[in-house]
Amino acid sequence: MSKIKSQHWFTILSLVILILLGLLSKSYRGFGHEWVNDSSGDIFYEIFWCLLIFLLVPARSAVNQIPIWVLGITCLIEFSQLWHYSELDTLRSTFVGRLLLGNVFDWWDFLYYGIGCLLGWLWLRLLEGIQ
Predict the structure, then answer these.
(1) CB-count exposure of residue 106 (10 Å: 0-12, 13-18, 19+)
(2) Average pLDDT of adjacent 10-residue blocks, the chain of 131 residues
(3) What does the alpha-carbon distance between residue 6 and residue 130 come to, in Å, rounded to a whole number?
(4) Which of 69, 86, 97, 101 has the fewest CB atoms in 10 Å of its CB?
């Protein structure tokens, strides 16, 4: 199997695992469940976008740039939560809108975005090395 094909399938598998982890984090009820339910998803969200973009642009040169772009865009989305325009609020009132745009501004999210992009970058480096 070629390197690109292996990367492609491992990236898809990674995305499936990440989606499952993200969904499970919303229903976790054990120790630290408040943090897991409310904040760990930010980390998974960043890694998800890094992997999805890598799936679409599997170039070695993109590995270092993808997490930077993901971090920048998600930080802009976080800041957009400070403004409550009817169009944005209508989008945020849907399940998909909440997943993509969030609905509550929180300074702590920037820390989790940074952690997620760092982990996303490391994950991309692992995928990049798959033969």
Answers:
(1) middle
(2) 78 95 91 91 96 94 96 95 88 87 91 98 92 56
(3) 7
(4) 86
Backbone angles phi, psi at 85, to 5 degrees: -85, 150
pTM, entire model: 0.89
Domain that holds residue 110: 3-128
Contact indicator for 40, 109 with CB cutoff of 8 Å = no
The pLDDT of residue 111 is 97
Alpha helix (H) residue ranges in the chain: 3-25, 33-38, 40-56, 65-80, 86-92, 95-101, 108-128
Those residues whose C-beta lies under 8 Å from the C-beta of residue 74, and which sit 6 or more positions away, are: 45, 46, 49, 113
Beta-carbon contacts of 6 under 8 Å, excluding residues fewer than 6 positions away, are 130, 131
Domain count, the chain: 1
Helix (H, G, I), strand (E, B) or coil at 60: helix
The CA distance from 40 to 84, in Å, is 25
Looking at residue 55, what is its pLDDT? 95
